[in-house]
Structure formats: structure tokens, C-alpha cells
Amino acid sequence: MNALQNAAVLLARIMICWWFLPEGIEKILHYGGMEKYMMAHGVPTELLPVAIVTEIACAVFLLIGWKARWFALWLAIYTFLAVLLFHVPPADHVDKIVQMAELVDGAGFLVLWAHGAGEWSLDGILGRRRKGPLTDGMQPAS
């Protein structure tokens, strides 16, 4: 990746954190309301702690870029499940917009899963250490 691509991936990771971290915290602060929302959609409230941990942990780990591909894949699955559980069929036009936005988020997570967190991440730093400063991942010809 070049510098512009690394900057774009870093910005994407920051934007993910900017959205999911506050959402996870809001679920803690308004736990009772979230339970009612889940019950109204027929979703077991026992899944609320999973949602909170997913949103907070994935946001932090994607921000620092640690095991980013795995956390991006988990968020893609989580997001698609949230769409199915809470937004299908959409209740109104606003819900349809939320549904589409969530699907776009999921698509972004799949792109991050496919391409990784970039060099400006903990994964990138650790990968460079494993490869060594001179080899850049290249193996000698056999």
C-alpha cells in the first residue's frame, strides 16, 4: 500500500470507531431501553451484552488495527444480522435508510476484511517486524 491508501484505511478505521464505540456506550447507558427495543423485535435480551462487547471491542481493536481482518469480519456478520433482526422489513422510509446504511457498513467491513488494516496499524507494525526491515516479505528464489 502507498501512503494515500494507508491514510484512507486509517481514516476508515477511525470512522468505524467513531460510530461503534459511542453506540456500545449508549447501549450501556440506556440498557433498559435497549432491552425493550430488542423485545419489541423478538430478539432475546441475553444478546445485549454480546452487542455491547462487540461494538466496543471491535471499535477499539479496529482503531489500533490489531487482528483487524478478524474483527472486520465479525462486524460484517454482526451488522448483517442486525439488519435482518431489526430492519427487515423496514418499518418506514427512515428505517429503510437505516437498513441501507447498515448494509453499506457491512460492505465496508468486508473490504477491510479482504485488504487488512494497512501498514499504519498494529498488524502492519507487527508484520514488518516478522518480515524484517530488508526483506519486506520477499522470499529468496528456490
Question: How would you characterize this protein structure?
Answer:
- The two termini are 26 Å apart.
- By secondary structure, this protein is an all-alpha fold.
- The radius of gyration is 18 Å and the shape is elongated.
- The longest helix is centred in the N-terminal third of the chain and has 27 residues, at 3-29.
- 17% of the residues are buried.
- The chain has helices at 3-29, 31-40, 48-64, 68-86, 93-115, 122-131.
- The protein contains six helices and no strands.
- Helix 1 packs antiparallel against helix 3 (48-64).
- The protein has one domain (11-131).
List the defining traits of the structure above.
single chain, about 140 residues, mainly alpha, about 75% helix, about 0% strand, elongated, disordered C terminus
- The coarse overall form would be elongated
Order of helices and strands: HHHHHH
Taking all Cα atoms into account, the compactness measure Rg is: 18 Å
Low-confidence stretches: 134-142
Count of alpha/pi helices: 6
Domain count: 1
Number-wise, the strands total 0
Helix amount: over 70%
| Strand-pairing-aware structural class | mainly alpha
First-to-last CA distance: 26 Å
Q: How much β-strand is present in the residues?
A: under 5%
Quick recap:
By secondary structure, this protein is mainly α. Helix content is 75%, strand content 0%.
Task: Give the SSE layout.
Elements: H1 3-29, H2 31-40, H3 48-64, H4 68-86, H5 93-115, H6 122-131
Helix pairs in contact: 1-3, 3-4, 4-5
